[in-house]
Design goal:
Blueprint lengths: L1 H22 L9 E9 L2 E6 L5 E4 L13 E7 L2 E7 H4 L11 E6 L3 E6 L1 E9 L4 E2 L4 H4 L4 E5 L2 E6 L1 H7 L4 H13 L1
Parallel strand pairs: 2-11, 5-7
Antiparallel strand pairs: 1-2, 1-8, 3-6, 4-5, 6-7, 9-10, 10-11
């Protein structure tokens, strides 16, 4: 009989602990660590804060659309919706490329936007104090104001929200209209 009571008491304690864990504020990572995705776009290495991403996709089909927007590769079906996909290297000022990038970083602002890049090198946790402020030219300042050191290389941290904001407002609707008119 005592085994059942002990078991029931322990079960109640576990339930209470479980329920209370959802009421408590989230625990900050130890040592103020920031997690970055390390990528390559246009031959350059970059870092993206993982908290800015809605996800990463690989080998997604991108349907080209007739549009004259800088960097627009086309539309891709992601998470049940059509997403405009932009070439990250083109948005950063790199020249034309021969092939479509393999990877896509998803950013969810007002709309889901895909930023295509060449390689995903992995993720890295970096102490907050190891993120360095950069003094950059005004046109570059909105794209990368910080850098981290990885394997003795200084890697620019891209501000994905700034990149997504640089894409014209309402681009998704305009792209979809162009795609529809191209079908007629």
């Amino acid at each position: 009989m005592t085994n059942n009571r002990d078991f029931d008491q322990r079960l109640l304690e576990l339930r209470k602990s479980f329920d209370e864990s959802f009421a408590a504020p989230p625990v900050e990572p130890a040592h103020d660590l920031i997690e970055f995705a390390l990528i390559v776009a246009g031959g350059q290495r970059y870092a993206i804060r993982i908290r800015e991403l809605a996800g990463l996709e690989v080998n997604r089909k991108i349907a080209p659309v007739p549009a004259a927007m800088r960097g627009l590769l086309g539309l891709s079906a992601v998470q049940g919706q059509l997403v405009p996909v932009f070439d990250l290297a083109a948005l950063l000022g790199a020249g034309a490329r021969a092939s479509t990038p393999r990877w896509m970083a998803l950013h969810r602002g007002k709309e889901l936007v895909g930023l295509a890049f060449d390689e995903f090198e992995g993720s890295r946790r970096v102490a907050a104090q190891a993120v360095h402020e950069l003094a950059s030219a005004p046109e570059q300042a909105r794209m990368s104001r910080q850098a981290i050191r990885v394997d003795s290389a200084l890697i620019h941290v891209l501000e994905i929200s700034s990149l997504a904001a640089a894409i014209a407002p309402g681009e998704k609707e305009r792209t979809e209209r162009q795609s529809e008119s191209g079908k007629e």
